[in-house]
Structure formats: structure tokens, C-alpha cells
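User: Some background: our group keeps a shared notebook of sequences we're curious about, and every so often someone picks one and asks for a predicted structure to add to the entry. Today it's my turn. The entry only has the sequence so far, pasted here. Could you supply the structure so I can complete it?
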Amino acid sequence: MVKDMTKGSPMRLILGFAVPLLFGLLFQQFYSMVDAVIVGHYLGVDALAAVGATGSVNFLIIGFCMGVCSGFAIPIAQEYGAGHEEDLRRFVGSGVWLAVVFAVVITILVVLLCRPILQLMRTPDNIIDGSYAYIVIIFMGIPVTFLYNMTAAVIRSLGDSRTPVIFLIMSAVMNIFLDLICIIVFHMGVSGAAVATVVSQAAAGLCCLIYMKKKFTILKLSRDDWKWNRNYVSKLCGMGIPMGLQYSITAIGSVILQSAVNGIGSDAVAAVTAGSKLSMLMVCPFDAMGSTMATYGGQNMGAGKLDRLDKGLKACTVLGLLYSFVAIGVIFAAGRQLLFLFLDAGEAAIIENSYYYICRNALFYFPLALINIIRFLIQGMGFGKLAVFAGAFEMLARGLAGFILVPFFGFSAVCYANPLAWVFADLFLIPAFFYVRRKVTAIMGQKSKK
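Assistant: Of course. Here's the predicted structure to add to the notebook entry:
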């Protein structure tokens, strides 16, 4: 079922679209947490650190893939908002071809370079073999990452945020059972957690594909829709590549920071891993808001309803502020207890470091909310290249922390690296939105005079 986001109350539409997305993201984080819980409790702290040490390079590559798919869906949302069904289908056909090409090329490159990257990041000797065993399987599954994210992005661009969630929930349940089977029954170690993740995501992607083909008559592609068209491909790349680079540029800073954490030792890696898993769960609403604003911005931009962009931004910012206060309260009140999900009570020093880490991050959740809301809205409006610079500011801040602050101030500096990155990004994004808004108004004004 498609949803037109160009009519009706922005707050109601944003909530109606974001809540199903939130459930999907929560389940996605849930089965990521299950990996960490099972690995931490059944395989030990070193195994947990081994998986955690791959987090930044995982985000560097998988984040690019997810960003590209989200970017490919923006022209589709815009054409749907404008009511141009023929162009919509041709964007879908061209997007599928591009997704296949990107998936094959990226998979080959990163699998070959996987171990050298881990060595370059100074991954501790006692965990590097486990890190490689885990991440190389995740990277071999990049084609299924494209399958799920591309199909889910197309479905969401038409206003249906619920269906991908249903399939993701099924995938999460499958992942839990596969984790238990692969790690506990078949003794596959950290490789088992990776296999479970890839297989589960493949199932979700296939379900999305089958559903999309059967339920959306607007997506019944003809032979002409599948033809390689330079204009459509160029516009898709103009949206998808900057959006993917935004994730990757941000992740480069995370790789630098992870390298600095690796230099402190595996206990520090374990503390950051546990804290990051919990923090990623807590910030899922911000991710849902971002994805919502991309679709909302794309449809309303396509329909030429600029006043609704401002109303949507205000509504979503209020939601982000309210949730930030709730999340801070939960982290400070129950953070230590929640960390027991990943760490044994006997690891007192690691738990305290992890708690310190998540508390310092939580204090800056609202700047993180603004990043997601404004950046994705700008991308939905068609200015993805500009939004890339926000990622560059995040990279600069984390690079500053990794190269300068962590060597001098140790673990305390690690705890303030993300907040510093979020503030840096907002210092660029807030003025950037007003620039984009003025530019779009001028373009629309010129069109109306013709």
C-alpha cells in the first residue's frame, strides 16, 4: 500500500511513517545485539572484542551500500510525488542494474583487502584472526545487503514503511535461532554469528522482492523500463553515490578512532563495543526520523509543496528533542544494568568504562537527532552532494580525536569523540538547510514565471 505524504498533517504522517521504521530498526539492532550477547557470553570477552573491532570498517563498507540504495530511492520518491509513473519505473529498472554492478565490484574489492585493512587499523594480535573470520563473511554477503536495502528503499519511497519491517522481524527471529545453532551447536565461533546475519538478511531481501513484484502494480516494469538509460543512471548516481559517500566519509573518522581504541588494548575495545551496541539501540528513533524525512522531503519536493518541508522539519525536530530527554534518562538510570546483556558482572572495570562512554554520548543525543533529520531532508530535496560535507565534518572531528586527543587523554577522549563529531556536523548542516531552502524557493519561483 502506497502512502502520499504530500497531504495531511506533517506530524501525523511523520509518526505514521517513522513508527514502523523504528520497529524495523529496533529489530535490526536487536539481532545485532543478539550476536553480541551470544558471542560475549558463550565465546568470551576476546571474541566480543574481535567482533567489535570490525564495527567501524563494517560501517565504512556496509554503510556505503545502504547509503547508495537510499539515494537510488530518492528520485523514485520524487517521481511518485510528481505523479510521473513512467519515469518512476525507469528509475527502478536503472537502479536495479546499478545495484548489481555496485554489489559485484564492492564485494570483490573488500574481500581481497579485508585483512590488510584490519592490520592497518592496528587490531590487537589476540583478536585479529577472530575479527577477520567475522568480517570477511559479512563482506561476502554484500550482494544480499544490496538486495534487502534496495528493495526495502523502493517500497518505502512509495510510502509503505510497514512491509519491510515485517520481513525484518522475521529475519531477526531467524537470526537468533541461527546464532544459537551456529555458535552453540556447530561451534563455528564468531564465523557462525556472521553466517547467521548474512542468511537472515538474504531471507528478508527475498521476501521484499517477492512482495514488491506481486503487490505494486505501479512497479510492473516493461522491457523498455529495463533498458540502460544514461540520463536515469546519471541522476541515480548523482543521488546514490553522494549518499553512500556520506556514510563512508563519516566511517573513515570512525576507522581512525577505532584504530586509536585498538591501540589502548582489547579491554578498551570491549568497553566501546558493549557501549556502542547499547547506544545504537537507543538512537534507533533518530535513524527512523532520518529515513522518514528522506521520503517526506522527496515526495513534497516532487510535488512542489515547499511549505510542507518547513512544517515537517519543525514537527520532526520536536520529536527528536522529546526523545533525547527520554533516552538520557534511561541511559543514566539503567545503563549499567543494560550493559550486563553484553558483559559478565565480573568485568567490573570494563563495565564502568562502558557506562562512562554511553553517558557522555547520551548527553549529546539531540545534536545527533538534528544530523539525521536535517541531512536526510536535504537529501530528499535532491541536494545529496551538499549533505556529504556533513560527513566530512564528522570525519574531521573523529580524526582529530583519534590522532591527537586519544594518545594524550586515553579512554576519556574516546568518550567525547562522537559528541564532538555530531556538533561539528550540525555546525555545517543547520546553515546548509537554509541555503538549500532559499535556492529551492528561487528555482520554483523562476519556474512559476515561465
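Suggested note for the entry: Residues 411-449 form the longest helix (39 residues). The CA atoms of residues 63 and 354 lie 24 Å apart.
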